[in-house]
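Q: What structure does this chain adopt?
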Amino acid sequence: MKKINRCVIMVVMFVLLVSCSSGNSPQSSQVNQGTRFLKNVDITAYQQEIDAIVTGSVDNEYLKAIVADDALTADEMNEFNRRVKQCYAQRGYNFSYDVNSGNSTVSRLDGQSVEVSLEDLDNVTYKCSDDTGYSRLVVKYASAVYNPKNLDLKPYVVKCLIDHGLADQSYSIADYVHDSQQRSGPFEVLDDESADVQKRNQTSVCVRDPLGNVE
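A:
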């Protein structure tokens, strides 16, 4: 598999963002605890996709164990997160995943910038996050939280945008697909720091949680 730079990876919908810290924090042997998983979820509707994650993961014994009962508990996800943190720490990095935002950050424990070891970090990321299946499982976990029945969310996003006055009544799924890709239409406010904060927040909610299961 061809390796890619892990400094910025964006996964559309639940936005799993892996960003490389500058490493200016003081050296520490402590692993940042980050935000804890809080919800137990039923993954029955995502079983086929999760089976593919298991099959495509090399070091997958823990992954296989926790998905065997068609559910993921908060305790299981927190333990998985702990193992990933430990894997990074053993190789000289601090890893932190924020459940609320879907953001992951990586920094060096010796305080140096990750820019001096990007190839090494790439290898560590594959070993700790990818080969274990963690990086893909957290996306499916988030999907199960926001969309437990694995529905096609596009019609619901469109309805949410229309209902909150962020798009007119003629706004279509095709419009949404185009605008979300081009960051145009209702999505322009997400890149405009001067835009109305309420509109920016509501647009984010419509994309992230159009079914209203969390927000």
